[in-house]
Structures are given as C-alpha cells and as structure tokens.
Amino acid sequence: MMKQIIVITEDAQKEELFRRTARSDYSVNAGVALWNLIEYCRDPEKCVEGTILDAGMVSEDTVIQLRRIMGHPLFPIVVFGDELSESEQGKWIRSGASEVLSLPASEELVVSRLTNVIALYAMSKSLTGRSYDDLTGLYTRQAFYHFAEDMIREQPQAQYTLIISDIEEFKMINSRYGEEIGDALLRYVGKSLAAMNSKDILFARYGGDQFVGLLRHSGGTDMENEAPILGGMAMMKKYAPVENFEVKFGIYDEVDHELPISMMCDRALMAVRSIKHQYGRTLAKYNQRMQQQYLKEQQILECMEQALSEKQFQVYYQPKHSAQTEELIGAEALVRWIHPTYGFMSPGDFIPLFEKNGFISKLDHYVWEKVCEDLTKWKRLGLPVVSVSVNASRRDLLQPDFLKKIREPAERFGVDPRLVHMEITESVYMEDAELLAPIVREVQKLGIRIELDDFGAGFSSLGILSKLPIDVIKLDISFVRSLEQQEVVVESVIRMAHRLGFDVTAEGVETDDQLELLRKMNCDCIQGYYYSKPLPESGFKEYLGSYEKAE
Hints:
The protein is an alpha/beta fold. It is 47% helix and 21% strand. It is elongated, with a radius of gyration of 32 Å.
C-alpha cells in the first residue's frame, strides 16, 4: 500500500494546498474522520507516515495521544491554523507537534516545512527501526520505556501503577491451535489494549505473549485505579479467537519515580511469575518478599551446574513397606541439595525453579544413574534388593532421547529394569495424556513399572486412568491426612483401583491408626514417617542391613 499523509480539515482550499505540496511518493488522504484518526493511524497496514491537522478541529489532547500512539518521537504531526500567534504555536509544539504552520504562507514555505519533517522521520526509521510492534501495532518495549519516562516526567506529582500481563500456557495454545491462531490472539489482545490507550494509560507489547501498561492516577483505592484495565482485559476474553485462555497480571503499585522503567517492569514481572501455573490466581502485586525470592532464585541458578558437577545433590531413599506383612518392598528416590555454604536446601526452593528452566532433566538423569549405581552396590554387598521409584518430569518424557537415557544406565550397571519404577505426577500426566501415553508405553516395554504420584490432587478419574499405561497408584498425601473423614472415599478408590489391575500405595503415613485403617482397606504399600523419614544412601544401606538381620 502507498504511504499516506492524513489531512484533517473542513477547508477545501487548504486541503488542495496540501495535496499540491505533498511529495509524489505519498498519497494525501483527507477522508479519515476525526473520531477515527487514532485508530486509523495505529493500524500498520494503513502505512500512515504523517498527519496534517487543522488547529480549529483538534485539541492538544489529540496531538498528545497521537504522539504516544504512533510510538516515534519524530512521527510527523503538523498543525496548521490561520494567523497563529507565537504563544499558540508554542502551545502546539509543547503538546507534541513536529511543526506548526501559520497560514497564509507561500507554497514554497509549506513544501519546505512538510518535506523536512517527513524526511527526518523517514531517515530516523531507517536508522533505528520502527517503534511499534509489527504484529500487534502496539509500542515495542524500548518505545514503551521512552514514552513511559515522558509520561511520568509530564506529571511527576501524579501516582502511577505499572501492570504486566502474561497469557498462561501460550506455547500450548500455539501447539494446539497453530501459530496462525496464536498470532491472531496476540493481535486481538494488542488491539484491545490499544483501544485503552489515552493520556493516562500507555500500553505496549513487552515481548512474546507479555504486554505492559502504565496507568496514571491521582490516588484512590487500588480497585478504583486498576479496574479500567483489569475490567477491559476481562471483557476482551469474550470475543477472543481462542476460548478459555487465562491472563495473569503482575502489578507494581506506588511506583518509585527514581527507578528506571526497566526496573519497574522487572518488579511487575516478579509479581506475575509468582502466580504462573497457579489455578484460580490471576493477579499478584509486587512486594519486598518477591525481591528477596528473586535474589534467592538467582543464587540457585548461578550455582546449579557447579552443584551437579561437584555432586552436591544427594539421593535420599524413603522405604516402602507392605501394608499387610510390613515387609520392606521398595523405596522412593528423593533428591536433596547439601550446599557447602547454604547448607541443606529445601526441594521446594529448587525443584519448581528447575522445572521452569529445564535443568530438571539433567538432575533427573543424575538421580536415575545414581539409583542404578546404588542398586548394583547393594547387590554386590549382599544386601536385600528392592525396587526403587524415580521421579520423571514432563520435560524428561518429551526429550527425543529419553528412552536411551533410562535404558543406558541400567545396562551399564547391569540392573534389572524391573527394579526401577518411574513416578509421574497425576497433574503432569493428565495435562497432555494423549501425547505422553505412547511414550510411557515404550517405558513399560523396557520392564519399568509406572507409578502415578499424587492421585486425587487433580481431577482425573479411575475410569480415565484405566485407559492409560499405569501400574501403581500413589494416593495423594491429603487422603491420608484426612483418612477418618474420607474413609469411605479412600476405601472405594482402593477397591476400584484393584478391580482395574492397579496396586495402591499410600504415602505420608505417620500413625498406627492410619496404618490399621489402610490395612483394613487392603492398601498394598505404605510409605511415610511411620516407618522412616527419607534416608541418605549410607543410612538406607544400614536400613537394608537391619532388615536383613531381622529376617
């Protein structure tokens, strides 16, 4: 499409003047209604390269908003009027006009002024690139930084709130519907947010599926200040090209004007990341605790590779006993991090982080190898040989060489695959059962039993699970903790599981009463502090030895 210069005027003679003086490679369009000017100019497909506005028809707010929407400090906004005084011309320049023409003036002067501002804009674009995002038409991140600073500088006494939104599981949307639909969703969100832009609200595409907004207000409650944006975001979901997508919001309130805009965004990002993958939570506000958590996570990320190479990660084993005979029949391998400086680090601090950044696959492979090595050692020492279950993440299962990675250590250490079980959490399995089931069946063909961990924490049913490759169901610990209240439910689950051919393990068992109830319900296996806490390899080796002597 030919590049356009938009003229807003009701004066036919002046319209004709601008048509005569415009460059031949530009099309002059005087057919855009004033009410549609902002929407028309922000559409990248319209190729708007400048505007010429009649001072008698537009306001300073129109110029301010147009300057902000177009996302480039040199975008041509020319204001003209009859015999404009110096103070009037100054007023338009301060509002953001590139040039002010006081008419009447010679055509030579008009040509010179228009040519200069248009050429300067074209040259700037060729050197620095566009300031708005090609896909959504919103500002780019860098342009947002620039205009957000201007916005705060304009009214430093005002209060500001910075919001970052993040579309939950956007990669899954792309995978399920295709990138074309994913792009359509981003365009739709961008258009919806752009419609909210005003002199007090500034939106941009932050990157990927994230959008950022700065809201100026004069106090009031958080609800009053954020309602226009959050309400608008909620309404736009109604007509989106994808149904039931979720948007998370991270909010940085009481913005510190001295901070760079990039740091303000970092704080809103910390907030939105704190609720990622948390069902039912759509909004989080930045606080100092998040900053401390972020620094802690950075420390973990900086030393994880070194920790793996130095074998700071240790495998602990928690025994499993037969519910009926109390015989030791297995163990679960659990990873612990003993840091030389920080000491014992809770798995809750590092496992979720590793699952996000992908390091979990390296760690899981390390644990798998260590379990195979320990099983061989125990056998060589003449200790009882029991099966050990090892946890596997979704990332593990989707690796192209996953089967090779679990088969090779077993072959190298001479371990019977039937001695190594694989635990997969219910939430991971049910998230994409159709994709994971064929992979898990291949694992079963190696002789490895599959244990479904945390059953009951999600929304799957035994009927659904009967169609999936599973050998053992591990009841979620919440069932055991409320066993007396849920006795009928738990007994029914165990009975149904047995009818479907599954063994049942109860974890988190701590008391005689819990053990007796589970035994009466014909539960197969017990795991928990009733028998033992997780033990380091040396402690579990002693446990195996004591069990052998007892026998």
